[in-house]
Amino acid sequence: MMHKVGSTCIIVLVLFWRAVSSSRQHLICDSVPDIFARSGSSEIEPRYVGYQGPPGKMGPVGARGQRGLPGKVSYDKINDTIDERVTKLMDGFLQSTIAELNDSLAVLISEWEDMKPLLDILHKKSSASGCPGFVYENNCFYVIVDGTAGLAVDYFAAKSLCRTARLSGKLGNIYSEAHYRIILRNVMDRKGETTLNFINFWTAMKREIPSGRVLLSDGSPATYVGNARSSTEWQTSDNRRKYVYVSVWTDGESHDDNPGGYGNVWPTFRWNAALCQYPVIAQG
Q1: Does residue 193 share a domain with residue 168?
Q2: Which domain holds residue 164?
Q3: Over the stretch 228-237, which tens digit does the pLDDT of each residue have?
Q4: Are residues 257 and 218 in the same domain?
């Protein structure tokens, strides 16, 4: 094989082991003339530089080795490994879940503590003692009178008045004659809240078409229709006049031409009061 032109440093490692008082190792490196150069020249011409040739022809195939021993599978070890990894995953998941549940529980406990005073207030307001009007058949009834001049309360505004006064408040029904008489007394107690000489309040009841019956808010027929202003009005009114109100004179004068009582009108008509109700907790 030809080599690149130039001087070659032949590193000769000479290890001398001498049986003397102290053994030493010597590394001798020296530059010697290029032993691969052509005679008469210190360089090798490029045409003499060779390259690695292709590999030689493959030799014969060697003898086949001995067959190895059959492998052994330890299913117990596989199962143990699976159990170990699953256990670690489950432990981590459970710890994380328990930590999250503890945090959520702590938040709920804190919120409950914050809500207890409010719940106590709501309980007192839900009891009969917190009723601003009167209690009848486990319901608190009260009349809200709009004190503004004129008539400003239509059917939809009346419903809003009841909800505004109390979250569970709604327009009320009249369930019997005795109930009706109590409501009238309650209305008279509020006559000073308006400058008008009457209080006309909306109810939750409606006139059935075409029978003319009065229906409660749950669709059942009312057992009492207090002093309907005109039987003809109930029977011949157009279909819009199905919303029931009650008219009460508060000036103590006789109004033979219009004694008051039940009436029916369309929902956008404006009166000045609303009969409201909400359920209360029975006192033991």
Answers
A1: yes
A2: 133-279
A3: 555 556 666 6
A4: yes
Residues 173/222, Cβ–Cβ less than 8 Å: yes
CATH number at residue 139: 3.10.100.10
Query: 144 and 103: one domain?
Result: no
- In one letter, which amino acid is 116? K
**pLDDT band at 23, cuts 50/70/90?**
very low
* Spacing of C-alpha 225 from chain mean position: 47
- Above 50 in pLDDT, residue 68? yes
Specify the amino acid at residue 90. M
Convert 255-270 to b/e letters by CB count within 10 Å (16 or more is b).
eeeeebbbbbbebebb
Q: What's the whole-model pTM score?
A: 0.54
Task: Mark whether 91 and 222 lie in a shared domain.
Answer: no
| Mean pLDDT confidence for 129-138 | 85
Identify whether residues 137 and 265 lie together within a single domain: yes
Quick one: 172 and 236 in the same domain?
Answer: yes
Residues 41 and 137 in one domain: no
Give the phi and the psi of residue 166 in degrees, each rounded to 5: -160, 140
- What count of other Cβ atoms lies within 10 Å of the Cβ of residue 134? 16
